[in-house]
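Practice problem: predict the structure.
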Amino acid sequence: MAKDMTLLWGTGSCPCWRVMIALEEKSLQGYNHKLLSFEKMEHKSQEVLDINPRGQKLIPDGPAEQALMYQRMFEGLTFYEKLNAVIYYDWYVPEGERHESALKRNKEALVTELKLWESYLQKLGSGSYLAGPSFTLADVVVFPTVGLSPERYPKLGEYYNLLKERPSVKASWPPHWLENPKGQDALKDI
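Answer:
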């Protein structure tokens, strides 16, 4: 089955990485893949725009676990937006329109969001995934967003260390992050 699939992906893209983690989790290695260049706008090519990438995987059986998974999954999108508002501030906001107060506000919103996720993981206990004891779609959606200071956010650090060892995550790790493991300087003070 995997040999009949082709994944179009871009290195460092959290949405692409989510799909790669899901494929690895479902033991669908051996799929065809094509690395797209964001710089060359290949991700906006007709080939990509013609594909509908939606699907559902990694959903728990119980209604309570499903509800928590969906809640965390959708909240993860807010987490991703707040992270991007800090990381890509200089990219999205024209130089003449940038204000330190706006960036400070974005950073404060991200810190508040990180504290919320710390509390979620604290309530679930050590060694837990985002929606309980099993790896779910919520983890596929949120994990690529995580990776901040384990000293400031110990539960997120524990969660990050738990997931980074999963075979699906290791097999799909963005290549340019392996080459430059230091991460984003924009987040050093968060």
